[in-house]
Amino acid sequence: MGDIFYKIRILILGFPLFMMCGCMEWDYGMVEDIDVADRGLFIVNEGNFQYGNASLSYYDPENGEVENEVFIRANGYKLGDVAQSMTLHSGLGWIVVNQSHVIFAIDPGNFKEKGRITGVASPRYIHFVSDEKAYVTQLWGNRIAIVDPRTCQVTGSIEITDMDKDTGSTEQMVQVGRYVYVTCWSYQDRVIKIDSETDRIVGSLTVGIQPRGIVVDGLERLWVLCDGGAYEDNPFGYEAPSLLRIDPDSFTVERQWRFRKGSDLSSLQITADGSMLYWLNDDLWRMQIDSDRLPVRPFIESRGTIYYGFTISPYDGDIYVADAVDYQQAGMIYRYDIDGNIKSEFSVGITPASFCWK
Known about the structure:
By secondary structure, the protein is mainly beta. It is 3% helix and 44% strand. The protein contains 2 helices and 27 strands. It has helices spanning 4-9, 70-75; strands spanning 41-45, 55-60, 65-67, 83-89, 92-97, 102-106, 113-117, 123-128, 134-138, 143-148, 153-159, 173-176, 179-184, 190-195, 200-206, 211-216, 222-226, 242-247, 252-258, 265-270, 276-281, 283-288, 307-312, 319-323, 330-336, 342-350, 352-357. The strands form 7 sheets. Strands 3-2-1-27 form a 4-stranded antiparallel beta sheet. A 4-stranded antiparallel beta sheet has the order 4-5-6-7. A 4-stranded antiparallel beta sheet has the order 8-9-10-11, with no helix packed on it. A hairpin with a 4-residue loop joins β14 (190-195) and β15. Residues 4-24 have low confidence and may be disordered.
């Protein structure tokens, strides 16, 4: 995705964004009970940086109904500033709100808060190792936080000793066996391998500049998408974006595909069966995991839109693509079938960016 937070960051090099404003002030108001289907799609809307207007939407694929602003309606206070991601685990939905430095745990059935994690300066993603332990990556810093989901307390951290704490960045995580693989994104160029039983880094692999997306395919191989630096004056470097296939056991690069320099790559995803990769590069593209070459034509072309994120339904394979429109007004979600035919569209919150299936 284009990532508003990152666009602002590159304009203010070397100065932590979390120092620019205080913690979110929670506004309490009237609450309501919201009745929704048991199976559906959460849409995490980033909102605008420093406006505190992030929101959560919920879509029922069966009847095509969408409920917007479900978090504030259920709790009486706003979600916060720059909602980044959401994960379901052990019957709770965990929403990472980056600039508000908080991770909310909600009941996915009624959207009411059940707990919150604080004490992580710039959280991006949360990965659950078990019911007792989770890792949280950060936009700023050289540590990955260790959290106990039962108490919502930070219990420790994993320090990346050779990463500068002022410009360090950790991003997405996946797990194969006991090992968790983490992309080190902004101003970084590697993937690290963590033994989840000891919470120690056991490997570091240099890839392309700024790896952000990572997925595991049906053969348990890692795929990493590097944005190449994203802009020409990036002090860390600027190169052609790339897609890499990595053997997790040997922790070596098996294959690397390069894109045209200046391409705006983001949002690497994979189908539920692990057979087909998707990503954004203005348009939506896809590729079989056994393909020898990159596709030459997009799967779904942009149409005067700003594609900012997408998800693939684990139930029927439909693709939901988020359109940020102009980053100021309500965003749009376009629903396509597996052949790329438009099925429906609906309006959500400002800057829809990420998704979570229930």
